[in-house]
Amino acid sequence: MADVQNSTQTLQGKNVMPSLTVDNLQQSLDFFGGLGFEVEDRWEENGVLLGAMLKAGDARLGLSQDDGKKGRDRTKGVGMRIYIEAAGDIDQVAARAKAAGITLTNEPHDTEWGSRAFEVTEPSGFALTIASPAAT
């Protein structure tokens, strides 16, 4: 059996990129656009948009349209939160989101770990926290 303590045998992740299956792809694209994401790539079939890769700085996020095969209108995002660490003024990012029609579930606030953060909920139910890096 391999030595579990040997760091060369453990996962050495460099980045994580969530991919979300959403109820209404266009609504989700509009939502993430309001947060400042841009479409990096799109997937279509027979002229129908099926998914997109979004980017904001170095962060990437995949979106795909729910095809209903696992049940129409199934609950999404339960027990999950996406945490996005962002450079820049978090209050300005929140103001941009609000100007785009996004309702904040928690206004910008100082966290106990020394960052500034706000929360939003994507139209399909995925919870997100947008935060500045923690103070060191």
- C-alpha termini separation: 39 Å
CATH architecture: Roll
Q: Count of helical segments?
A: 2
Supply the CATH class: Alpha Beta
> What's the β-strand tally?
8
> What letter string, H or E per element, gives the SSE order?
EHEEEEHEEE
Strand order of the largest sheet: 1-4-3-2
Task: Give the overall pLDDT as a whole number.
Answer: 91
Q: Beta-strand level of the residues, as a percent range?
A: 35-45%
Low-pLDDT segments: none
**CATH fold assignment:** 2,3-Dihydroxybiphenyl 1,2-Dioxygenase, domain 1
What is the molecular shape?
globular
What is the CA-based Rg, rounded? 17 Å
Structural class given helices, strands, pairing? alpha/beta
Helix content: 10-25%
Main beta-sheet annotation:
4 strands, mixed
Q: How many separate domains make up the residues?
A: 1
CATH superfamily: 2,3-Dihydroxybiphenyl 1,2-Dioxygenase, domain 1
Q: Could you please describe the fold and organization of this structure?
A:
With 136 residues, the protein is an alpha/beta fold. The protein has a single domain, classed as 2,3-Dihydroxybiphenyl 1,2-Dioxygenase, domain 1 (Roll). Helices cover 15% and strands 38% of the residues. It has 2 helices and 8 strands. A 4-stranded mixed β-sheet has the order 1-4-3-2, with helices on one face. A 4-stranded mixed β-sheet has the order 5-8-7-6, with helices on one face. Strand 6 and strand 7 form a beta hairpin. The longest helix is centred in the first third of the chain and has 11 residues. It starts with 18 loop residues before the first strand and ends in a 5-residue tail after the last strand.
